[in-house]
Design goal:
With 416 residues, this protein is mainly alpha-helical. Helices cover 81% and strands 1% of the residues. It has helices at residues 2-11, 29-49, 52-63, 67-83, 85-95, 97-115, 121-131, 138-148, 151-161, 167-182, 186-205, 219-227, 230-261, 265-292, 295-314, 319-348, 354-383, 387-407, 409-415, and strands spanning 12-13, 214-215. A two-stranded antiparallel ribbon has the order 1-2.
């Protein structure tokens, strides 16, 4: 904590006569408008980012792909969107969300439109690479919201912003159905039009908080500064487990349900959307609980619960009711954990470097979602079972719970 405050003091160059950032009245209409705009932008960009997930099983069959190849296809946008959050977060600190959000949204339109015309596996991989741009929107919205809300309400506000990850649910609800009903290109054309509309809306209405702290130095210097903070890497690990677990399930669950339980593509996508909706709804709950208790105990309980449910699912119980309860239980706990981690970011990150910290932590979360689909595809391809992959998830979640309880407890003590 003291290290973070010292870094903030040394790196901040306030605008002349500006008020301190983050002191906006949380209930003000301007703060509410900016939160709503940021959440909408997160949702539509995440909708685009997740388009390949529900289409993965159909593409696998059409191109006769292996499980590993299918996993790589849906994971590429995840890893690119994750790594891209690092520079995008630093750019947001420098230029503000009003500039960066419309640019990210416009850039996402290009790969979405390209997906409507490409069909070969190499072309899909390359397009998926650029589709990852949509995933960087997260690193733009968190600093924007943090600037408009004071620390006492920041956890809940960032949790509400996190509802935008429901774009993954929208993708699962609509993509296959739109393609079946109106043609394969329809989902991509519709999402492109919505992205264009949001780019215009955000350019006209989005505003950074008054007195936003403007850091000095290059983006690399700012990233280097926050990279030297121990707490940054602690937060990276926790978010890699919490949000990474959510991302992994949201992109791989349709394939898992089809292979393990024999569901068709539409049914699998619909159940995945239900998983995502619960995780999305739980994210503000995690932020709200963190504001009232502290993020540390919330994270301990969430990760411990995920570990228990993953063990249950490793034995591949019947889908109704045990499998459904286990999967939806993990959805709620992973969503709440994601909200709690960023409530913790709001408490410990230097005020002028929230974007840089968000970029690194967000990248860790996305990378945490990149690895499990590859592992699950490889495990099933070699063993014919998902049990090992789910047991590994349980082990990692349990390690996160123990780490939080032992190593992060000092944060709760210092702020109590």
């Amino acid at each position: 904590m003291s290290i973070a405050r010292d870094s903030a003091a040394s790196a901040t160059t306030p605008a002349p006569g500006a008020a301190r950032a983050g002191t906006s009245t949380p209930g003000s209409s301007r703060a509410t408008l900016q939160l709503a705009l940021a959440t909408l932008g997160f949702l539509v960009n995440f909708w685009a980012w997740a388009l390949l997930g529900p289409l993965g099983p159909g593409i696998k069959e059409r191109l006769d792909l292996s499980f590993a190849a299918q996993s790589l296809l849906v994971a590429v946008p995840v890893v690119v969107g994750s790594l891209g959050r690092v520079p995008v977060g630093a750019l947001t600190d420098r230029y503000g969300a009003r500039v960066v959000f419309p640019l990210v949204t416009l850039a996402t339109i290009v790969p979405v439109l390209t997906l409507s015309v490409v069909s070969s596996y190499p072309a899909l991989i390359v397009t998926g690479f650029f589709l990852g741009i949509g995933g960087t929107a997260f690193a733009v919205g968190v600093p924007l919201v943090s600037g408009w809300y004071p620390p006492a309400r920041r956890g809940f506000a960032i949790g509400v912003f996190g509802v935008g990850m429901g774009g993954t649910a929208v993708a699962n609800f609509t993509t296959v159905r739109l393609a079946d009903a109106y043609g394969a290109r329809t989902p991509f054309l519709l999402v492109s039009a919505i992205l264009a509309g949001y780019a215009i809306l955000s350019f006209l209405l989005l505003r950074d908080a008054m007195g936003r702290a403007r850091p000095t130095g290059s983006a690399w210097q700012r990233l280097s500064t926050v990279g030297r903070l121990t707490v940054t890497w602690q937060l990276c690990f926790l978010y890699a487990v919490g949000f990474g677990g959510f991302v992994a399930f949201s992109v791989y669950l349709p394939a898992y349900l089809r292979t393990a339980y024999g569901l068709d593509a539409g049914d699998g996508a619909l159940r995945t959307a239900g998983f995502v909706v619960l995780a999305v709804a739980a994210r503000p709950l995690g932020g709200w609980l963190s504001d009232r208790l502290h993020p540390v105990p919330v994270l301990v309980w969430c990760f411990g619960g995920v570990a228990a449910f993953a063990v249950v699912q490793a034995f591949q119980p019947s889908l109704m009711p045990v499998g459904t309860v286990a999967l939806l239980g993990m959805a709620v706990l992973l969503g709440a954990a994601s909200g709690a981690v960023f409530a913790l970011v709001g408490k410990v990150a230097p005020a002028d470097q929230v974007g840089a910290v968000t970029g690194l932590v967000g990248a860790a979360g996305g990378l945490g979602g990149f690895v499990p689909p590859l592992v699950m595809g490889w495990v099933y391809g070699s063993q014919g079972s998902y049990a090992i992959g789910l047991m590994l998830l349980s082990d990692v979640a349990l390690a996160a719970a123990v780490f939080t309880a032992v190593k992060m407890a000092g944060l709760a003590a210092r702020e109590s």
